[in-house]
Amino acid sequence: MKKCVLLMLAVLAVAAFVWFGNKGECTKKTESVPVAQAQEDYAAMSLEELKPLLETVTEGRLTVATSPDFAPYEFYALDSEGNPNLAGFDLALAGYIADYLGLELEIIPMDFDGVIMELQSGSVDIGMAGFTPDPVREAIMDFSKIYYQSGQSFICLKSNKDRYPDLAATDRAGLEIGAQTGSIQIDLAKKYSSNADIVPLAKVPEILAEVLSGKLDGAYIETPVAKSYQTNYPELCVALDVPCEIKGSAIGVTKNHPALLAAINFAVTAALDDGSMARFIREARELADGNTYEGLLGADGKVHP
Ligand code: ARG
Description:
D-Maltodextrin-Binding Protein, domain 2, alpha/beta, 10 helices, binds arginine
């Protein structure tokens, strides 16, 4: 009996230890409040105060990850000899921000899901890839203010347009519907076409090629990108507007860089206010209507169709 009481006491002691130990951990977690506080403090600073506080992966340089398969946001414009040059309003804005902050600019092209991973691991400073500031992503990255408004669309072949009078018509078993890996378009596909087969593909041009060849019945895509492809491929149709609560594009900033985030917001505000952003959008649209390449270049820096 005595033994039994002793055993119970021991169990209680362990339980109490675990309980208070956990409580200790809880207190630790709430200590993240000062970080949140810091974000506000930095947001209240002037640009001159922020500049010396900027911490980047490489000192003096802004390292930007992008996914150049997304005209007019980011893509390659081909010159008269067919040489690819990075273009798009995201990248023009990246250049503006780097100048504004007195940093050198480095752009690293990769697939869209790669941009998310690089931001998560902190191996780049920012991601500019037409990011929708989805709150789910806030565990991985911080978002700048919105610099561009956009919507979402469902695309299909023009010849099939009548099959999709509304989104409910995309929600049928047997349909194959594409969306880019890691994008919010995957979530939209799951929401509106849950009975269809959802096919994730790494690059937007792969999605387009499969819609054009009839392998995919349709795809979810950002409206400006869908319209840009429609200009170049008239057999394609931007069939439906897709409701999406989160609108617009923001810059993804690696977490815990409050000075950088605040400084970037300064630069974005300036680009919006001085008319630069409007010009970047105009110029990007013009270039996107010309000869372009969407995707990644070969190791030799050339286009490999
Ligand atoms: N706006 C969508 C998202 O944030 C798609 C972005 C894809 N960007 C790209 N460069 N491919 O998920």
